[in-house]
Specification:
27% helix, Neuraminidase, alpha+beta, 4-stranded antiparallel beta sheet
Amino acid sequence: MSYFLMLSKSHGDGVLSHYQKLRTEGRMCDVTLETEGEEFPAHRTLLACSSDYFWSLFQEHTLESRARTVSLPALSSAGLAQILDFIYTSWISLSPYTLENTLEAACYLQVTHAVDLCARYISDSLSLDNCCFFANVAARYGLSEAFTDANRFIGFNMAKLLGTSSGRSGLLELNLDSFREVLGSEEMPGVKELAVLYLALDWLACNSLPALESNSLLSRIRFGLIPPRELSHLGTLRPALRTPFIHSLVQKALHYHMQVPLQPLLQTLHTSLRTTSSRVLLVGGGPEPDRPRAQVQSYDQHSRKFRPLLVGMPKKLQHQGVCVVGNFLFVIGGELVEVDEESEKTAVMTTSDLVWRYDPRFERWEEMEPLLQGRAQFSCCVVEGVIYTIGGRGPRGEPPLSSVERYNMRAGCWRSGAHLPHAVHGHACATVGTGIYISGGIHDTQPESSKEVLRLDISGPAAWKRRAAMSIARFGHQMATINECIYTFLGMYEQFSDIERYDPEYDQWTRLRPLLNDRFCYGLTVTPGGHVLMFGGRKWQDGQEVCTANVLEYDPEYDSWREVCKMPAPLSGTHCAVMAIQEPTET
């Protein structure tokens, strides 16, 4: 025998609408709920089916099961009216003014669906005007998801809340659990940590806590992000910062500030920016050759927006090295470019040995210990926290370099490394594990681009060893490591636009899908998702070099290229790095 199981969607709504009509007309009501002097006729069966409280109250063995009137003195009449409307219609009318009364009644009567709607209302209605109030309500009634959403909203919008007197007042009225969660926020765009510390100290002044609770709260402050002068000053003035535990955190932060060369190796939560995402930094470059600008732009891969850093590079450089250690940006060597302001045509280029370090925590550049010798068109990389600069070119007109330097951060100085078997410049570099690979370039023994590949294992003998050569001779190209394989991309004036992949395990190169057209002097980086981004560069068009503004993306899984966006202006000769920076708050 076969049969069909059918559902009528209108039946349930029809039953509720008839119940509501009976309630409105006062018909067949067998119980009256009373609070604050107001009476609400109702039907026991519907109440019992909608509320765990009424289900227990109207059991046969209870006095209330036969009572005509049930008093609910713990509830407000407005809250009870809201919940009865929901029970009879499935609709609930919520606003900041009705929310607490409604939640109080819904929780007391155990109408869980109404509680869920209140929680969803909080999460969906968060704004600068109500977020602190909603966080307190969510904490009071144990609405875990709404509590988390409200605290996350407050942390992300902290800059805007601190910018208004009403917003700051709301923050000072936050409950302890919410305030603790907010102080631990990973995302706080546009907020200086000193402002967070002042807020915490003001909150503690308004809310007296035992020392243990106060310490727990203040331990969420990232003291390493606070300038040492202000931190030292506050540490002597504010009693909350003088407890043994917090005093030790303050002293650790002050000690960190004193160890300038070592800072990249001393990173902890207390020195990390409050951001969960990284940005691509485009360091230097310009719209035409030999005219670099001292600009640094940040690129957000998700929004595809470019934004200049507030503080540009100290010097105009080209052919420099760029790397990141401990979320500090290092700009190394290169050519200092000076343009005659009168003619705007004559450029004086001097090979530099200067090393600059950018600290995004305080948005400032610091001059570090210089290289042992100036170099440009060299390659640099980082292995196990050590910066390596390899080969390159000294002053123009002089032969290329075979020297290698290592930056010892613990000593704060550069030291010589394993020399190359020959001098080279214009080569590319990539790392896999503890191995450093360089490819191509122009050697001192030959005037043409090279196919040669060399490897140095820093955990083994201090000597470079030859590996399988590329199939294409390249100069001024770039390399990138993805999933333990090395990819080489286009160099200067290559006839074809092919790229290659090297497998270190098999010491083997494989040709991949080429770009649609030539490209050189571009910026290149690998995203956290394992894609390659190529920024700008120059190409040949109608017999002339043209600077481009497009951003290309390479997907190694599908061996495919696509254009993802345009830069604000054409850019050539930029160098890329990926790091976390303190983004300003959106206006």
